[in-house]
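Input.
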Amino acid sequence: MSETPQYHILVVEDEESLVHGIKFNLEAEGYLVTAIGDGQAAMDLLDDTPGSFDLIVLDIMLPGLSGYEICERFRRKDSETPVLILSARTLREDQTRAFDVGANQYMVKPFDLDEFLSRVNNLLTFRPRRSETPKPQYTFADVEIDFDSFEVTVRGETTRLTPLEMKLLRYFVDNADRIIPRSELLENVWDLTGDIQTRAPDQFLRRLRKIFELDSAKPRYFVTIRDIGYRFVPDGSE
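Output.
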């Protein structure tokens, strides 16, 4: 058995044989595991015991409530606890929706056990402790950002961002004035390999520009560096 801290993992999966295998292997790694096969029961448990779990492993197709619904509702109260989606769905739209409702990572069934355990360890090891969480507010120009509530106030108008939009915005803020390669965003915001072909960064950047820029066609703060990547310029001097 590995020297793993006693993290508590909630596994929400209704395929009994898969639950047994996941639970057995996670416990062999030293984790405490609670398994539930019903979506509504899982949501009730999360509502009744806030802060009890360090990681949620979540299927999409569940009786009661779907994994999408569980993740979306959970994120309204908890923006920190990592969520790993396990699903037989392979379409890009399914993965995009999972990230939109706040999932941290997405794995397609059947999955490699070693990769699964590695992702679990990564999500738990690099999860910020609550005492180490970055400051929840940030301001630039005429913008106020509240990372805890997912709300931004731009020129007096308040808008609520999706978890993935806020994750992207946080990454830009943490790397202000630095040119960020497209591959880096895919790896650190979408948890995808940097060589994957997707328009997701461009689509999300357009959404941020509509919210923050005076003229989204002539961005000053969220700038595309042609053939290289992107840059967040807080003072709008680009």
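The chain has a mean pLDDT of 86.
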